[in-house]
Amino acid sequence: IDQDLCGVVVICEKDGATYLDKLYLVPEKRGMGYAPFVFSSLLEMGRDILLNVNQGNARAIACYQKNGFVIEQEERIPLADGMVNIDYCMRLTKTAFDARHAAPKQS
Predict the structure, then answer these.
(1) Is the separation of the CB atoms in 81 and 90 below 8 Å?
(2) In terms of pTM, does the model score above 0.85?
(3) Per-residue pLDDT tens for 26-71?
(4) Is 90 exceeded by the pLDDT of residue 4?
(5) Per-residue three-class SS string for the chain
(6) Which of 62, 10, 9 is nearest to 31 (CA)?
(7) Residue 48: other Cβ atoms inside 10 A
(8) Higher pLDDT, 1 or 107
């Protein structure tokens, strides 16, 4: 991981877990291992990671699922003018993350 600014992470505690409120990476830093680094670092706090992601954000959902997040439920969020935003509520456990990032076994 280099010293250049690569993005923003905002977290808080929610329901005994670490809630990942924001994870923004600058486009040229995406796909370089920063997201798994963030997830690993947050999991070291000893709590699951929770987050909400818009169901239309396919790139983010793919990243989260690749790293072991699972969709627990959908959340309907009323917006102005009668619009509704539908988010997926996702959770990552240390076990699920480690399973995705385990070193290959030597035979």
Answers:
(1) no
(2) yes
(3) 998 888 999 999 999 999 999 999 999 999 999 999 999 999 999 9
(4) no
(5) CCCCCCEEEEEEEECCEEEEEEEEECHHHCCCCHHHHHHHHHHCCCCCEEEEEECCCHHHHHHHHHCCCEEEEEEEEECHHHCEEEEEEEEECHHHHHHHCCCCCCC
(6) 62
(7) 20
(8) 107
